[in-house]
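Re: duplicated header lines in exported structure tokens

Our pipeline writes sequence and tokens for each protein into one text file. With two proteins the header for the second block appears twice in some exports. Here is an export where it did not happen, for reference. First protein block:
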Amino acid sequence: MKPRWKVCGVTDPRTAEVAVEAGADAIGFVFYPPSPRAIEPDAAAVVARALPRETWRVGVFVDSTREQLESAIETVGLDFVQLHGDEPAGLADGLSRHAFKALRLAGDTSPEAALELAGQYSNCTLLVDAAVPGEYGGTGRQAGWEAARALSDRYRLMLAGGLTADNVADAIGRVNPWAIDVSSGLESSPGIKDHELIVRFGETLEALQ
């Protein structure tokens, strides 16, 4: 069955429109200034207001405070927050929106180690991304699929990390994720989404049904 999917790192209305037309279930806004995909909450709100009601609006944060999270939720109208830094598990408790927590797993991460780490975030939906020192996502590197599969057997899991139209079918078959999170695999250069790649990615997923 085709998983849900999110186009992350969207910074303009036209890209969001293309993603929705391609079948994306969610649009991700990156609120982390060092990222080439960063956007200010006020600008994200403009894009978010043009989205269909059923499209999820997801804010991506790195080590933000609870106050910063709630401010962006209110300004943009976020449906979910995605925690991509080294946030403590308790940060998700009491938030006004459900949190996705990114676990950065290297290719050689054992299933046992992944399960132990995941146990700390039982209050969040888990997202597996690649582990690259000093980076918090959008690296184009592949995550540890074996460990991710162990998590997906037990949890509702989102998969990120180096996904493209060429490998996403294989990733889904091996990991069986609830959702896919794609960013750099849809870009012509860091932060610049390629609309043709978005369309192709959507067509690849539709063919899995």
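Second protein block, exported in the same file:
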Amino acid sequence: MTEEKTARPHRARPESLEALGFPGELPEDWQQRAVAALGRRVRKQPDLRFFLNACVKCGACNDACHAFLGTGDPGNRPVARQDLLRAVHRRHFTLAGRLFPKLVGALDLDEAMLERWYSYFHQCSECRRCATFCPFGIDTAEITMAARSILAEIGLGQKSVAEVIAKVHRTGNNLGLNPRALRHTLDSLEEDVREETGMDIRFPLDEAGADILLVTPSADFYSEPHVSGLIGYAKVLHAAGISWTLSSHASEAANFALFLGSDEHMRRIARRIQEAAEELGTSRLVFGECGHAWRVAYNFPALLGGDVPRPRHILDLTHELIGNGIIRLDPSRNAGMAVTLHDSCNVARGSGMGVHPGGQLDIPRAVLAAAVPRTVEMPAGTTGDRTFCCGGGGGLLTDEMMEIRIKGAAPRAAALRQAVEGSGATHMAAICAICKSQFSEVLPHHGFDRGMVVGIMQLVGRALVL
């Protein structure tokens, strides 16, 4: 058995799962619970029922999947991953599967199948590229999320994801930072910016009555290139004269419950942000650079119900401020840079940005073009809604999954090489915290310097005329 076929993230500790309301370990009746959970999910999601019945095995998804292209593992073909759930569904929820299982590819959910579920559904980054190429629009990400939710319900959750969700419920962010630690971090950033610019640019926390509540991924508080993005946000809002604040109750944009496939915990995390906005009396909600966070945020009205205003993305706001002449950028401050854009999956395929069609693709490019001397496009067929995944999304961004992450990044690395060798790209920009972290770690394995990875708001912060 190859390494790819046995690759899997560490399983969550019992106490982590129990804190989320799941069994701490596999119960004796796990098969019955899993089948019942599958039935509930299919009844709840008509699209999932369609995905499990519509596939004609045409193979259009195979060459679309970075995981299959990178690992060469047949089990990572989207159709093969779908069949892991499809076979169990047929066995228990179709007449033919109950009477003639071998004739229709129906299989029992035994221990061997359970291991395949845990392995392969945790090698899917939920990037949705397969759905773009599928003639029926079958979305493996939805199948992956359904399978992961079932695994969690029977006590087989992923360690890093479960622990992060528990931290958010306790403290409001993925790192478990309490308000005092968060304030100390922001004070340090204020000092850094004062040394750089000679100006007092504030990073406010829990200030009632501010116009904007900014919610950003926790990576923005502690590591490069992320922290430079947060500095960029602060500089833009300062230059525009907009009052804003962060919240210690909800200081995290990322919603890892998406990776667990748990609608309930996605709502709880999203509701925490809504509570912070209401408590502070902010009139607008703006999200920082994080792909899956933006995907969840964009769907707030459907997720939370009721009259919930849809948040804005920091790039959308920055684009408006540039267009209205409220802020000015000097691209010469990023001299010598020719930047290509990695379209992050969850922005390019999972949500919108701005008020006009295609904004999620046009707005980042417009802001990037205003911030640097020259921009370069990735090769045809690897941008926009056909972008390749970074290989680290969907909860894969853990050390034990590094081999899979490196291989999963291979298609994007090949496209980047073409942009470098054919068009002279010097840097690659991304607007997702996971993409930036993933590329910084895996691109050196593909012959690139990790310093070529930048964020758009990082470049905006450098180019901004204060």
